[in-house]
Amino acid sequence: MVFLRLRHRHRPAPIVLWLAALAVVAATQLPFWYLGRRASEGGWAAWQETLTGPTGELLINSAKLSAAVSLACLAVALPAAWLTLRTDLPFRHAWSVALALPLAIPSYVMGLTVVAALGPKGTLQGWLEPLGVDRLPEIYGFWGAALTLTAVSFPYLFLVLRAALRTLDPSEEEASQSLGRGPWRTFAAVTVPALVPALAAGVLLVALYVLSDFGGVATLKYGTFTRAIYMQYSSSFDRTGAAILGVVLGALALVILSAELFARSRYEARSRARRMSPARPIALGRWTWPATAFLVVVVFISLVLPVGVLLYWLSRGMQAGTDFPDVSGPLRNSAGMAAAGALITVILALPIAVLAARFGGPLARGIEQLAFATHALPGLVVALALVFFGIGYATEFYQTRTMLLFAYVILFLPNALGALRAPLLRQSHHLEEAAAGLGRRPLAVLATVTLPLRAARRAGRLRPCLPDDHERAARHALAQPSRLPHAARRRLGK
Amino acid sequence: MSPSKREALCIEALEVRYGAVRAVAGASLSVVEGELVALLGPSGCGKTTLLRAIAGFERAWAGEIRLDAAIIESPAISLAPHRRGIGLVFQEYALFPHRTVEGNIAYGLPRGEYAHGRVRELLALAGLEGLGKRYPHQLSGGQQQRVAVLRSLAPKPRLLLLDEPFSNLDPGLRVEMRQQVAALLRAEGVTAVLVTHDRSDAMALADRVAVMQAGVILQVDTPRELYFRPLSEAAARFGGDVQLLAGRVRRGVVETALGRLRPIGTPPDGPCTALVRPEWIVPSLDVGLPARIVSSRLEGQQVRYRIRLNSGAEFSMTAASGLSLAAGQAIAVSVHIDVPVFPVDPP
Questions:
Q1: Which of A305, A423, A477, B210 is geometrically suited to a Cys-Cys bond with A383, CB 3.0 to 4.6 A?
Q2: How many whole angstroms separate alpha carbon B245 and alpha carbon B314?
């Protein structure tokens, strides 16, 4: 039957799954343990000293930026996901690739792009100069940072929403249309509510990412918490202050996490089995051009502009006769590590995702939320935690690739989880029950039915492999041989 | 079906293609106002595709669909689904999980006092009072099914389409729901097309049954006509159990192994195939051709017998279980009704 509740809480999860999930999540909590130790070193005095002054303002700044970027990402990613998956928009496939690619743009590059395009003496002002415009509205600060971070983080939400949309049963939308509501009203009244779990997961990723971003806010000179932490770290030997700020940031992340948990629990109970026939594409008709224009603007700002700026700097460097360093080594390094990191992260995320989506219960939920918590930590904090751990407890791994891979896992586990979870929640249990009925043991069911769910894996694998600000800071602190984004940053004279 | 009734839906030589596959290959059907027509056919015959084309979710490749004399679907014209005023009840109901029963039923209505009253009226009509505040997953299968029908009925659609509405229900509930839904549709006076692969659904519910096979509609008739007077062997199979006898028409009579039978109409002389459903053979003690019971099998309300005539020819015969004939017993059999006769296809 169709609408029966499908969360079988009475079915116990295989013990191996529990052990694996607990081990992974315990390992990812290392930075918090480090933060706790560091933050308690100075006693109350250090707390008082650190938290007086502009801390409150920084916190509000971070929260404001998080909220604004989340909303903006929603406004971009939701229509984009729907257009590329459900309509007859031309070149849908190419669009969906182009819309995922900005994930590969580090936030400081995007920040530089925004400054170059919209800043004082920037491109736009140059164009407007003949018209007598000698000043543009201030780009540094909140709006610039919001624009920058939206451009680099909307693909998180886009990919999560696409994965969810793909597993959505079109007959509810058709029912709505047959009841007299057009495509747009159907989208608002039926599709969006069905996407709530995915929306919540995607917004969570974006919000936590914004909390932890450094490159974007640093370039656009907007004072957020993470920037303050970075300043604290780099400006003094005593890292207690920075650790305390890290703890506060972690607390803010917890608030966002519980909000997401609330949104999810309201809708999750109603996830159900679905007919899996693909929807017939909706004819856009005269809306084709506005829709295309929308995507053109999004891709232009988030992908074409930053790549263009990079190429421009490159050509200018070469014209100036700067010797161009051989980057093939770093490039190979970067790609190899990215692939290995992605694979390991997805594999490690699977037990947690399956446990939370399939078996449920407060413990599984707790494990999952803990795994998400690290997403709010700046890459720098994670890296320093690992340095601390390496020097103190695992000397033989210090400054090795193993350590770097471990850092990747901690940093990208939430991304993989977010992408794996939404499709798992929407997938029918009947498939797995059918496998169990055919005599497969629980672990065999996981291996033969749950894991091959293609949509889930595809979306999950794509994301973690792309470099971003987190990774750069982590690599930096872990003193690994120079890799591409790092080298690029040096070239840019930052 | 009085002649004064207006034609509500008209499908003319409709073709729907999926790539090179012709799912609907030139189907024609006419439905008059207030009528309930069942589209009966095996799975894969194109009946659901035809239904979806009427609703506006599949495009016509050729032919046209008219609703109240206006073209709603043709290769050139396609009215958007939400402008057609055609309700669609899905096989899996497709209730909105995030809305209550009331919220689901009121979905197609303009907001306000009218919607409130209409929802109450419909819930009462279906005997679902008190369930308005529940969510779909809190309802039984039969209740979900009725809510899905009520939701589609609420905006008073010009036409209601039902896609295998009973296939998700167990047999006992199925019979009950069939009656309830039929009562609902008649109470609302709605014109409806119902898709089913179940003969008894079609027979019990519909004013007329359209038999569909391989993308075309073979015959549209009342259940009674379809059962007693099928126009082809294929159509005969949808009406009930089939037993075909080789025969020969000679001067208005069909000569078969079961004796000389009266054909329907006046078929031309020559070889033919005659339809004698197992239940049309009537056993008695002395009237008719002598025969012997070979074997018997109880099938609930009826018993299926294997009988052998003196000529050695064997037939299938069903009779009420109260008759209780034993294997080996000598009886006499006869056929009292006019039998459908089909020409033999040239080899």
A1: A477
A2: 11
